Structure formats: structure tokens, C-alpha cells
Amino acid sequence: MGTERSEYFRRTCLCGQGELVIEFCMPDHPWAQAGRGTWGLSIHCDSCKKEYVLEERNNQAVIVRKFDVQARSQLGHECYERARKIMESDQVQQHLHDFETLISSQPTVTATYNLFRSTQILSSSINTFRRDLKREGATGLLRRHVNLRNMPHILNKLGKKDESLLTTIAELEALKTQAQEPCEIIGEPICDITEEAFYKK
């Protein structure tokens, strides 16, 4: 099984020496369903490929600067690494140890489940929680799912204040938001890219 690619759009690139090509791709098998298609967006120009990237944005194909894309990707990676190091810090590990003690003091599985839910560590159903709890234990579930965004809720449940940690989390969340901001579009959107538009063409 492969992918059937159908050319949808082609035009001259920004520098005029190559082309922008958009293809509609569908799985090449008899049970492929509408709505399962994807878009192949490519720049066929060595010069423009160094400067720009084609992106899908709100059902439209747009051109953005490659530098902006790479900068946001790098910032996202840096945020991930900072969050990982913070979670591994003695400061956070002590809070998690105290939270594990609180978890172990819960009288019932339902109470334990509610504690996990109230700190936004898990959002699964209680039946799924019971199964996973039996398989991994409360500590295993905590360590596998907890992340930095849960820490303010955990501190609240512990009745603890850690302003330095909360400030660090807020700063990191602001950077994550910056990393996720859409890149500036160069010029106008190239074309609509929807299955409806493809089949009408």
C-alpha cells in the first residue's frame, strides 16, 4: 500500500527561478475515507528553499521564513530541556516525595483518583485509573504522567508555597507560548487547501 499523490496547485516561486507545488495525498487502498487526505507542500527552488517554508495555516497554504520556523523550533526545544531539568531538581523532587506521601494516605481508590484528577495529572476515567493503578501503582502513575504544569496544583494540595518555583513556571510558560506563535506570513496566502476545494477543481 502506498499513497496516491495528485497535483493541486503550481505557481512560480518568490524569486521566479522555480515553483511552488501543492499535492493532495490519499492512502492508496480501497477503504480510504474522505477526510483522511493530507497535503504535500514543497518548494522546487534551491534559492527559495534556503529562505522560505510552505506551511498549512487555517486551511490555507502560506509562505513563512525558514529562520522563523527554526527559531521557534529551537525555543520549543530549549523550553522542553529547561522543564526537564526543573523536574529533576532537588526542589521539585522533594515536593513530589511529599505528594507521594499524600497519595499513600488516601483511604480509597476513588479518593486517590480524585487527587490525581484535581491536580490535572490524569484525565482518564476511573475504570482506566483502577486498571493502571493495579498495574503500575500510584507512584508509577505519578512519575510517568506528572509534568511541570501540574506543580502549582500539587503545591496547592500540599498547602505549600514556593514562589521561586511558581515564578520559574510562569516564565517558562510564557516562552512556550512564544514558541508556539504562528510565524509571520510572507505576502498573501497562496491558495485554499481543503478537500472540497480539491474536488471542485
Task: Characterise this structure.
- This protein is 53% helix and 21% strand.
- It is of the alpha+beta class.
- A hairpin with a 6-residue loop joins strand 1 and strand 2.
- Helix 2 (66-88) packs antiparallel against helix 7, helix 3 (90-104) crosses helix 6 and helix 4 (109-118) crosses helix 5.
- It is elongated.
- The chain starts with a strand and ends with a helix.
- The relative contact order is 0.16.
Question: What topology does this entry show?
Answer:
Blueprint (H helix, E strand, L loop, with lengths): L1 E11 L6 E10 L9 E7 L1 H6 E6 L2 E6 H23 L1 H15 L4 H10 L7 H20 L5 H8 L4 H18 L10 E2 L2 H6 L1
Antiparallel strand pairs: 1-2, 2-3, 4-5, 5-6
Helix pairs in contact: 2-7, 3-6, 4-5
Number of strands: 6
Overall average pLDDT: 93
Q: Give the percentage of residues in beta strands.
A: 15-25%
Could you describe the largest sheet, including whether it forms a barrel?
3 strands, antiparallel
Tell me the span between the first and last alpha carbons.
26 Å
Tally the helices: what do you get?
8
Q: What structural class results from the helix and strand content?
A: alpha+beta
Radius of gyration: 24 Å
